[in-house]
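Field reference: sequence -> structure
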Amino acid sequence: MNIAPVINPGNQSAIESLVGQQLQIMVRQLELLGGNSIPPAAPIAASNPVIPPITHNLGSTSHNGNGRGTTTTPEKPLKAPAPGTKISKSIDTSLTAPQQAALSEIIDRYVARTPESKRQAQAHRRYLADPRTVSGFAPLIKEMVYPIVINRAKGSRLWDEDGHEYIDLTNGFGLNFFGWSPDFVTEALKAQLDLGMAIGPQTPLAGKVAKMITEITGMERVAFCNTGSEAVMAAFRIARTVTGRDRIVIFADSYHGTFDEVLVRAGSDRTSLPAAPGIMSAVFDNILVLDYGTSASLEIIRQCADELAAVIVEPIQSRHPELRPQAFLQELRKITERSATALIFDEVVTGFRVAPGGAQEYFDIKADIATYGKVVGGGLPIGILTGTAKYMDALDGGFWQFGDRSIPEVGVTFFAGTFVRHPLALAAVEATLTKLQAGGADLQISLTTKVTKLVDRLIEHFKLVGAQINLEYFSSWFYITFPPTETYGGLLFYLMREKGIHVWEYRPCFLTLAHSDEDIEKIIWAFQVCIAELQSTGLLSSSGNAIAINKNLPPQPGAKLGKDRSGNPAWFITDPQQPSKYLQLDKFIKDS
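Structure field:
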């Protein structure tokens, strides 16, 4: 029996080559047994089109908005790579004496409230290498740079090691949709624990859950991973396998996980550079970074479309939720269809949160490949790769059946993991999908309504008191940033935690179905109190309307901040008997 050699391009691993050889051997054996003339199995990435080389010029550039630029001087390494841990080593000496005194008081209060969290951070630092324990570090606030250690979570609430209760606004960076530890997930996990956690044999949940995912998303086939990052990495691999091309387009400011190829930033002349230390520039030989949502980017994609294996989008960027370029995505879909380029939707954040069918349903655009995670895991780690059979068949050779002469016809790439299809994770996914199917679109709509109410009130307050705070939102999350002039704006997040609102700076905020109207009122009150304190000390700019709100008494639901007859800021609440009449709540007012 003659076995045709497998074409092994230089970038193919030995494992991938071995898998390809094994598949071809199997095909030839079946051919001999059946007596049929079967064409050779397609080699893995057999021949790639000639792609103009991308060079890595480590010079700085002057950009014109489309990724092109003119090299000037050698680029210096990024001091604070993004995404990543943000550490500042410079000592700020610009504070006035009153501001320094105010900051010292904030630090003392925060440390006094969370001593056990601080103790654990220091006690474990020598042997626990944890980026989150140093995120946001600056010498000025060194004494309160540590994460709050949480020992219990339920619904919208967290409880720390010092016994304090928090309303959670971070919510697992978007994984929490129903609230922490929902009963239907907990019960499913307990039931699976009683059955055991066999790793290696197939779990009956795998096929059942895969079918549920296809029903909700409209995708044809499903594969499971451990994380969203793994799902995106696998999406790249199958796109390259099927198209026989290498180059992939990524858009600036999108987030696609933690593997090397997606930790990238734009350089000059359409080059791509590492976004963090420790990553080789050569990794990006086939990655092109463009601006999201621009006509210039579409034109560049048109020019090189026939060379592209895939274009990946975070359809609504988690850190730019107000950027929703539907016309851009529709045209991108047309371009990729014409060139047989895979369009990948990274729906790890948007999937099941924006709509039952995710961003694809919201934009009415069907991707070739989509990745999911977070919400669908019900609190457990999960990554899900979905797509059309054309691409997903590259994982297992495609459909065949027992009792006839069918075989896996499609050449495969390598994809595996010890803990993929973990019974506990799939039990949580099944329980979550069942709840999502039962609730339908009303779940996402009701949550969006909550967030809209919260955000509208916050924006109204920011404007009234002149707080220079940027707030973008979409669906059930929002993202807060400060202009560069607000040097000490980040103190807001420390003050919010002191007031019982758990929130992480540099991260989007998410609401869940477990958040009540009372929770929303307390969140709004905490923002108002904390902003007032920063403004009163000069640590945050103000319009002059800032007031020192009662720090110990949240306003009643429906209370609004307005102005009294003298033009002074004041709290008001609607008279339930006369909705058009507002009653002034003097107890919420203190002099500036």
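Note: The two ends are 90 Å apart (CA to CA).
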